[in-house]
Amino acid sequence: MRRLVNRWLVCLFTASGLFTASSLLTASGLVAAFVPLPVAAHGERATEPYIRTRTVHWYDVTWSSGSIAANDEITVAGKFRLFSDWPDAASLPDLVFLSNGSPGAVLTRVESYISGIPARQSARGLKTGKDYTFKLVMKGRVPGKWHLHPVLNVHGAGAIVGPGAWVEVTGKQSDYKEPLTTMTGVKIDDLQTYGVARAQMWHFGYGVLALLWLLWWLRRPLIIPRWLVTQKGREDLLITSTDDKVAAALLVTVLLVVIIGYKQTVEEFPNVVPLQAGFVKVPVPPNVPEAASIEVKNAEYDVPGRSLRMDVVITNNTDRPIRVGEFMTAQLRFINKDLPAAVESIDPSFPKDLLAGAGLKVGSDSPIAPGESRSTTLDATDAAWEVERLVSFLSNVDSRVGGLVFFYNDQGERHMSEISGAVVPVFTQLGSKVSTKAPEILNARVD
Amino acid sequence: MDSDVCKLRIGPFNMHFAGYQPKANGNTEFCEDIPATGNTIIVMDAIDSELRNIPIEVRLIEDTGDKSLDEGTADGSQLNSVTMLHLPSKIYETGSIPIEFNFTHAGKYVGLVTAGDKGQYTSRFPFSVGIEKTSYGIYVLVAGVILLGLGFYKYAGRARGMSRPQGEQG
Ligand SMILES: [Cu+2]
User: Fold this and answer.
1) pTM of the model
2) Where are the alpha helices (DSSP H) in chain B?
């Protein structure tokens, strides 16, 4: 009885220790709650801002449809610029793999291309400062509403997620089929289930053998008695002749299963192709001269205003007048709404939540003449800086921001330039809204 | 932002709440509780884009403990008497509502957000200013560790005391 009580005591103390540890963890969790938590549908907001603003800039991304039936295809296509001011903390895109971001195998990827080259394997040879086209063909599998993104997995930098749009898959999952005819003419009805029964049979079969072998030994006295027997030098007592016979039978069974199984499999599938582990080499696109250069003189992020303000100098290197049409970073598009060509560039399939409500305010918005260098301000204001968790660039070791700026000339032609620079946080006084007056005076203002 | 703790619900929509005291704490972001009195900036950001297209009205009131005040049952003059700041109904295109206020005394406050053409969506979020919350976590942990040690010490003593007579039996 006393021993029982003692055990209880120990349990109690251990439990209380664990409890206090966990309560402390909860407390520290509450403290950490001030920091935005990296949780989103599938992590698009969790990626570090320096990755989202300064690595892969996806643009001209379109989704061929917003709703497809199960077993129907949807194409996500567009371009991406590998940013020149690629952060030191992330590996360069020497080895990449193009895929898609969606919650599990709700859509299957049937085709993928980088620069028109099939990209079912990893690709090498991509260079920063260059533009690449991409295309993903996806097939609806599980009915539901899914957020579908293009994703570039960069070896050493992780998955760099592009813009996401909601795609609805209608119909039934049973409508989804993935039939295939192999090179040797074998017709496979559905790749989803092909070979599954075979794999299960082998796993289960070997599992049964292993279990029987374990049980054979487990029914005997275990560790301590056996240890005592070996201590006394009587190992001969531990293994009987029946054990030897069972062991021999098991050995023969396993070897026969392997030999016969191998022979049958080889007869059934005489032609097999090994798993492909090579790389695709993507050719380097030709150099495109920058139509307009844009230099950041000063950039500040107004914390309460949710506003990125940049003082820039734009030099027009083309022979036609240009205007700033768009600033884009981390999939967010700030459109100069005063420029019709920029507004028209928004594809109807582009997700509305990635278009900043107030757009881009250009300080000096008149056309920049050929050869002219213009100092102006670019003002990108939106709650998305906070909601998309992009402001932690202020707490990074290199507080920089980067993005793409799109220009349009008087003929509606588009040019693109990279923009990047250091950014500092500021707190602009809200002026008119400051109120430290006594309540009586304030009451007069209240309607 | 599923597990965002600084989230406010306004009808079917969500907003993100952030408080700053730039003079005292730089760009540190606070959630529901503002650590000190003084000049404070509160920003509410629309998580759902629908909130960008509907008018939003914001009121900061002192928490008198009387809920009828902010549930709209009391007459306007009573609400006004506790109102410290009022932003009339307006559409916020950029999705964020910045508020600057100088809290002169510590205490409990309530933010009242009303959204929609008819003010059909409301949200009431209480927060405190300058009320220091001592974190007992570390003391609890230290006490827990000491208690754990004591427990083992006592147990070991008893177990040894017992093992001698029992060892002879077994
Ligand atoms: Cu998504």
Assistant:
1) 0.76
2) 22-25, 67-70, 76-82, 137-169
